[in-house]
UniProtKB/TrEMBL annotation:
Pfam families assigned: SRP54, SRP54_N
Protein name: Signal recognition particle receptor FtsY
Taxonomic source organism: Pukyongia salina
Assembly, per entry: Part of the signal recognition particle protein translocation system, which is composed of SRP and FtsY.
GO CC terms: cytoplasm; plasma membrane
GO biological process: SRP-dependent cotranslational protein targeting to membrane
Length: 317
């Protein structure tokens, strides 16, 4: 049985296909040129494939891993036709993603916890952080969960206002203070409110700035420490939001944030309309952090749970 059996609903799969269309088309344009006139996978084809993967924002280190795996197969099988390359790439990239993304979730679910499940969301301004929080709130609420939002990005008034818009739109409660308030205080109040309301999920927004990594680290550490006064094992998930359309810049942001705090999962947004979808493969592999969600459209339902098999199937369709 193929690894790539259909897991998503038809509608969800169509959204994913459409969201990755530009990345897929650009990748296959490059790939067809890389193997033009060749019948078997040889050193020239592998050199060209390496260039294709790097220029598709997969990243140098991950590209070299993929090339090594294909070289092993060429050596083992003695002959591999270029017509098989698409299938081989699918299998090897799915295998690589499986090392970090071990689950097979397709729906918005949370682990069973004694207290509300706390998600602390980090990421620079402009990557779609607040929008991702709003869409997550919508999805969890649609799944029957009671959600509370916390506006702990007190650095910008616009961030608080934007989160309020999403709270109104999704009809979930929000805890906020005025601009310039202590983010840890907001997080504390949010968790206390969530416990009182017997909420299932708490999503905490945090300041999106990287100009001083030390300050960011101190702030996030303090927010976590204060939350643990209410819920000892909070946060259960530190979700880093990255803008997929920025390609290699997303790698740099991941590097900065993983140095500043313990990131446990990733959301890669704005994959629709960009040819840089390969960044999902590289970032997941390089940082050994699972991709939990991907944004493949502007609609409220266009944030999807990342499923490695469906992603690779759409990318190589």
């Amino acid at each position: 049985m193929s690894l790539f059996k259909k897991i998503f609903t038809k509608e969800k799969k169509e959204t994913l296909d459409k969201g990755l269309e530009k990345s897929k088309n650009t990748f296959f344009d490059k790939l067809s040129k890389a193997v033009a006139g060749k019948s078997k996978v040889d050193d020239d084809v592998l050199d060209n494939l390496e260039e294709v993967l790097v220029s598709s924002d997969v990243g140098v280190n991950t590209t070299l891993k993929i090339i090594d795996r294909i070289e092993e197969r060429v050596s083992r099988d003695k002959y591999l036709g270029t017509d098989e390359l698409n299938k081989i790439l699918r299998e090897e990239i799915a295998g690589l993603l499986s090392e970090t993304n071990t689950g097979d979730a397709t729906e918005f679910v949370i682990p069973q916890t004694e207290h509300p499940y706390v998600i602390m969301v980090v990421g620079v301004n402009g990557v779609g952080k607040t929008t991702t929080i709003g869409k997550l709130a919508y999805q969890f609420k649609s799944a029957g969960k009671k959600v509370v939002l916390g506006a702990a990005d007190t650095f910008r008034a616009a961030a608080i206002d934007q989160l309020q818009v999403w709270a109104d739109r999704t009809e979930v409660p929000i805890v906020k203070q005025k601009m310039g308030s202590d983010p840890a205080s907001v997080a504390f109040d949010t968790l206390e409110s969530a416990v009182t309301q017997d909420a299932d999920v708490v999503i905490i927004d945090t300041a999106g700035r990287l100009h001083n990594k030390v300050n960011l680290m101190n702030e996030l550490t303090k927010v976590k420490r204060v939350m643990q006064k209410v819920i000892p094992d909070a946060p259960h998930d530190v979700l880093l939001v990255l803008d997929g359309s920025t390609g290699q810049n997303a790698f740099e942001q991941a590097k900065q944030f993983t140095a500043a705090t313990e990131v446990t999962s990733l959301a890669v947004t704005k994959l629709d309309g960009t040819a840089k979808g390969g960044v999902v493969i590289g970032i997941s592999d390089q940082f050994q952090i699972p991709v939990k969600y991907i944004g493949v459209g502007e609609g409220i339902e266009d944030l999807q749970v990342f499923n490695k098999f469906e992603f690779v199937d759409s990318f190589f369709k």
